[in-house]
Amino acid sequence: MAHPYPVREIARQAGVSEATVDRVLNQRGGVRPSTVNDIQQAIADLDRQRSQLRLNGRVFMIDIVMQTPDRFSSAVKTALEQELPSLRPAVVRSRFDFREKGHVRDIVRVLDTIARRGSRGVILKAPEAPEVNAAVLRLSEAGIPVVTLVSDLPFSKRVAYVGMDNRSAGATAAYLINQWLGERDSRVLGALSRTVCRGEEEREIGFRSAIRERWPHRALMEITDSDGLDTSVYRLVLGALDRHTDIEAVYSIGGGNRAILDAFDARRRPCRVFIAHDLDRDNRELLEAGRLSAVLYHDLRRDMHRACQIIMQAHGALDGPIVTSPAPIQVITPFNVPPEAAP
Predict the structure, then answer these.
(1) How far apart are the C-alpha atoms of 272 and 218, rounded to whole Å?
(2) pTM of the shown model
């Protein structure tokens, strides 16, 4: 029961005598279990209060840099703004640099600008590339911690990753699609925005691995390099439907779900199973309308809260080790939309 507090302070916090605290700390016995629990709780409370004192009045300017469709960046921004009150007594201020598409050099330029002007931390969603990893290294050398969001850069100097376990998500999608298709000899369309995004690549690997292992008869078709933008997605899906008359299911890894369904409608083709990611505005509406079978969801508010905490830990403002702990995956239907994802 290591601690940095005087016995008198622990006794006052727990409401017991100093002698009782001394017996518990030195494991001499003769103390009721409930009193031992009170003393342990008192130490935990003192730890929390000490962190709050360190945070009181501190301002953390954090940059959020993302290459992603607007519907997802908007959801991230909303999630962060909803979590700001829960991060008090620290004050978190944010700067946003969002782009729907672009070159790696654009992301690198933004990260290098942040390294020059300074920041308390960066929350980053970017394609995996050596140039991006090098820019993350320069941020680290400038004392600016980087937390990757949703799509990891495991070979960079980022301090942690927050988001779901993407391989498990892909395998879950494979399971759901094959349960719904049953014995139908249908082809599945996998839709990615970019294969250079590790998060999407991990989902695709998890999906294909599960299919090969458990449903080797299932035919797959893949489209990519749409950036998740509706016009590109629509064109690519039309082409896939024209080439393969047996596509009847979709695993949407990279978004653009309205465009995917519009393409099925344009060709008067049934989409019997549709698994998507994230509960943005479009997906909530499509799920409620019965156009999506299920959405694989993780709590973005939890992710943003954890990312901010990790940045504070990196600066010594919060205690505890920095760990990467992927968020649990939830399978969402119209009947179990979580309150935090409601409009």
Answers:
(1) 15
(2) 0.78
How many percent of the chain have pLDDT more than 90?
A: 64
Contacts of residue 16, defined as CB under 8 A and 6 or more positions apart, other chains included, come to 35, 38, 39
Task: For residue 77, give the nearest of 90, 63, 88, 61 by alpha carbon.
Answer: 63
- Say if strands 91-99 and 121-125 run parallel, antiparallel, or are unpaired: unpaired
**How far is it, in rounded angstroms, from Cα 236 to Cα 246?**
16
What confidence score (pLDDT) does residue 150 get? 93
User: In the numeric block, which tokens belong to residue 331?
Assistant: 């399978």
- Nearest CA to 260 out of 241, 246, 242 is that of 241
Mean pLDDT estimate for the chain: 91
DSSP-assigned beta bridge partners for residue 122: 63, 146
Dig out the tokens for 74 from the structure: 């908007």
Environment class of residue 310 by beta-carbon count within 10 Å: exposed (0-12), middle (13-18) or buried (19+)?
buried
How big is the chain by its Cα radius of gyration, in Å? 24
- Burial class of residue 342 (count of CB atoms within 10 Å of its CB; 0-12, 13-18, 19+): exposed
The confidence band for 53, taking pLDDT boundaries of 50, 70 and 90, is low
Burial class, 325, CB count within 10 angstroms (exposed 0-12 / middle 13-18 / buried 19+): exposed
For residue 4, name the pLDDT band (cuts at 50, 70, 90): confident
- Note the pLDDT tens digit of each residue in 160-181: 999 999 999 999 999 999 999 9
